[in-house]
Write a structure and sequence with these properties.
2 copies of one chain form a homodimer.
Chain A (H helix, E strand, L loop, with lengths): L17 H9 L11 H5 L11 H9 L5 E2 L12 H19 L9 H12 L10 E4 L1 H13 L5 E6 L3 H9 L3 E8 L2 E2 L1 H13 L4 E6 L13 H13 L3 E5 L15 H4 L4 E6 L1 H5 L5 E4 L2 H15 L4 H13 L2 H26 L5 E2 L7 E5 L6 H10 L2 E2 L1 E2 L12 E5 L5 H25 L19
Parallel strand pairs in A: 1-12, 3-4, 3-6, 6-7, 7-8
Antiparallel strand pairs in A: 2-9, 4-5, 8-9, 10-11, 11-14, 13-14
Helix pairs in contact in A: 4-13, 6-7, 6-12, 14-16
InterPro entries (chains A, B): Aminotransferase_I/II_large, Class-I_PLP-dep_aminotransf, PyrdxlP-dep_Trfase, PyrdxlP-dep_Trfase_major, PyrdxlP-dep_Trfase_small
Family (chains A, B): Belongs to the class-I pyridoxal-phosphate-dependent aminotransferase family.
Protein name (chains A, B): DNA-binding transcriptional MocR family regulator
Chain lengths: 459, 459
Amino acid sequence: MSDQGTQPSDTDPTAPDPQAQQEQASSGRQTSVYNLDAHTRRYAQRTAGMTASEIRALFSVASRPEVVSLAGGMPNLAALPLDSLGEEIARLVSTDGQAALQYGSAQGVPQLREQICEIMSLEGIDAHPDDVMVTVGSQMAMDLVTRVFVDPGDVVLAEGPSFVGALGSFAAYQADIVHVAMDSDGLQPEALRQTIDEVTRQGKRIKFLYTIPNFHNPAGVTLATERRAEVLDICARHGIMVLEDNPYGLLGFDGQTYPALRASDPDNVVYLGSFSKVFASGLRVGWVLAPHAVREKLVLAAESATLCPPTLNQMIVSRYLSTHDWQGQIKVFQEQYRERRDAMLGALEQHMPAGCDWTHPEGGFYVWFTAPEGVDAKAMLPRAVTQRVAYASGTGFYSGEFGNRQMRLSFCYPTPERIHEGVRRLANTITEELDLVHTFGSADRRPMTGPQAPSPDTA
Amino acid sequence: MSDQGTQPSDTDPTAPDPQAQQEQASSGRQTSVYNLDAHTRRYAQRTAGMTASEIRALFSVASRPEVVSLAGGMPNLAALPLDSLGEEIARLVSTDGQAALQYGSAQGVPQLREQICEIMSLEGIDAHPDDVMVTVGSQMAMDLVTRVFVDPGDVVLAEGPSFVGALGSFAAYQADIVHVAMDSDGLQPEALRQTIDEVTRQGKRIKFLYTIPNFHNPAGVTLATERRAEVLDICARHGIMVLEDNPYGLLGFDGQTYPALRASDPDNVVYLGSFSKVFASGLRVGWVLAPHAVREKLVLAAESATLCPPTLNQMIVSRYLSTHDWQGQIKVFQEQYRERRDAMLGALEQHMPAGCDWTHPEGGFYVWFTAPEGVDAKAMLPRAVTQRVAYASGTGFYSGEFGNRQMRLSFCYPTPERIHEGVRRLANTITEELDLVHTFGSADRRPMTGPQAPSPDTA
């Protein structure tokens, strides 16, 4: 169809744009002007910001069985009662399949939305099912909240570091992501105030603060209870909405829960929840709780995004909640992850050379690790994989050039023995790296940590 | 937290915007400026275009059991083998649950992508599984294709009328939707040429042509085989990508299939497929087949949209395809829908007053009906529901003010008896409406049909 040989290449600045092609064709020239590169010239402006995340590039290497992967965030599902779950789903399909396999509403199955309200009440939230919308994982909720609120160039505040998936959603809508510093007690209220002042002085418009208060991904810290009212107050005073992301809130290792931000400010907080970490990630069932007017806009946005979330998956979760001891199952998860956290902290203590630092999470999946000066975590990764251990380098969790001495170490998926072995291999890699640095100097010329990075005393 | 009594209302043009609020708060004023209306002022520009579709508003009324709904597009799942399907899913969860309930790749399960290529080969498509991405229904594929290609103000060409869900996706990205006329042989090549010339003269940039070649929703027509090469050639010459949406292609009532547009132009066609109409809509499993570079961008967009499609649902479809006689099942669907189409056409012939016109679909779910002059289908709908029949008024299937004499009548879901009764009730409603029109004149002052509407001889 096209004569590709005579077409300018994608990198040729003289290449005609589609507009010109359309005019040319309309003016009567009958030669085909289509070629493969044409697609590249047709992309929307937002598409320029879509690049493969470092974590994604890593998954294929890190998934080889001989490599201990401390990189992924996959929950450990081995403890799930798969047989009884399978039987329950078979009953559901055989007795109620015509509903379960049919289209549903964009807002989600009413019974599940009621059960979601019961779950949220465990963290002090008083909500009505009509203000809940079910989503295809809470990733979709982030996407839709951003879609509804963010124009290109609007500022979104996010902890530094922050969840890579959220940063991806914000970037997809051309948000200007500005990080706010954390310490071992989570987001720093004073840093939040200063950042808001600075951004406002620059004449930019802040749309919302994205925060993961509990067992932070990737930082492994929790927002101190006494800071919560202050963060809410700062945002309310400045007319900034709060987007609270809470996938790990029920995975505190002592069974403790923290009061949700949404519990004390129903009007200014949009809350995201998920069944991915407390039940099954592959079902892709999450939710958003929002003030009524916002929830209405989110439903309209969801209709154009996926029409409706999968009915079957929602009914499976609903049945699971009503027929299984889901709170007992969460206790099993808590114990399992606590054991793995302990294995990781013990191994770090035992094997890491001097000058390393790391957080001590009380729940969730992640330890945030800071290597000694001179180590470039991203550059070191291929050498670590050669030594059969993988991690997520810190740079992926920032929108700017930060986190190059940091790594996210996940303890959720490997067994305690594998975690211990992985940390031992990582310690060897770092030790060898430091030997190289001391001999030849560091190749890393970037700033070690920015003002956005958690301070090294995050312990 | 807020002092709502003293806050300006949302409609008050003097209401401060968040930017001003942020500056005010930064300047030291300590009063809270937050109120509920604040959310409305924070919405992105694209959110202004998000309004509830007419069809959605209809679903709640039309779902009462005494109403015969000819409005929805729900497939009839009664013929599915629910017991054996339930058993198959139970086996899947019990033996392979740790994979089925876990995160997967954004592109989708490899085995399913191979099977999708086999399905597409039935319509002449030669594709590689690596160029396929699985989506949460093909609605998500439309959303992502638009996300990757459309900047605000870019033109998307679409048949007039067109699928309401696609129009919603295009509107969500602020596309300028321009309709192209159809007749009983589908999209008119000459109208396509003229529309491209006109839009190009206006200095606008056309990103793609969205088309449903087979058993069109809502028009019920099929693009004639001899027109297909011409449509492809026009688009290729003008540098316009083709987005081919084909959810009904295997639901031809005589078992006939048409050659997919993608089959003869792999480089310039992005193809959308779905299991919603040939297996189960509630699983939300669809796919997109795209040239390699485009597919890569789509995967990146999908990661920020939902992280990955539900693994369980993909594995269910894959197992169903390999363990059930899915082609035999499609034959059952074809026969069922043909019987219902016949019931509808027979009842229309028997009951409708003079001056009505309708299409004669050879497959799919829908008849496109044109009422006599003077009838406003949208205004008449409440009176039809009072007479216990519902339809989708034609205006919902256009982006402009067209289709007010038209209705989409679905024959997919009700039984033949209910279809007959529904059409009888609709005929009575129209007859009474015409009596009113002849007595008092029509309240309808809008143009009867635009140049974009299928011509009345679409039979």
